[in-house]
Specification:
It contains four helices and no strands. By secondary structure, it is mainly alpha-helical. Helix 2 runs antiparallel to helix 3. One of its GO terms (molecular function) is metal ion binding. Its cofactor is Mg(2+). Pfam families: DAGK_prokar (PF01219).
Length: 125
């Protein structure tokens, strides 16, 4: 039998994690600001359903990666508060993963939003 109180409690804890991510993590705030700008541009450029799905997937992937990165960094700092070369490598790999996703998201954004922007600026009738 499913204990719905446990499920709701789990959702509450996850929600607290999301709020904390955007409240305390500077990079997450930057990603949130960029996402707001991209979504606003998407409305202005009248994206279609597929384009919205792609853009929103990119936004979600970056936010999730930032959350994983933050969790890994906090765990590393808890386990090894001092400087340690292995901890540095772990943290660098984790932040590198966010950077990879961000670069891909920028490319996707340029393809989708840039194409619409070029059409709007140069090919409007």
């Amino acid at each position: 039998m499913i204990d719905f109180r446990k499920v709701l409690r789990s959702f509450r804890f996850a929600g607290e994690g999301i709020v904390d991510l955007f409240r305390f993590e500077n990079n997450a705030k930057v990603h949130l600001l960029v996402a707001i700008l991209v979504i606003s541009a998407g409305f202005w450029l009248n994206l279609n359903r597929v384009e919205w799905a792609i853009i929103l997937t990119q936004v979600g992937l970056i936010w999730a990666a930032e959350a994983f990165n933050t969790a890994i960094e906090k765990l590393c700092d808890f386990v090894s508060p001092g400087l340690h070369p292995q901890i540095k490598a772990i943290k660098d790999l984790s932040s590198g993963a966010v950077l990879i996703l961000t670069i891909i998201a920028v490319i996707v954004g340029l393809i989708i939003l840039g194409g619409h922007l070029l059409d709007r600026l140069f090919f409007t009738t």
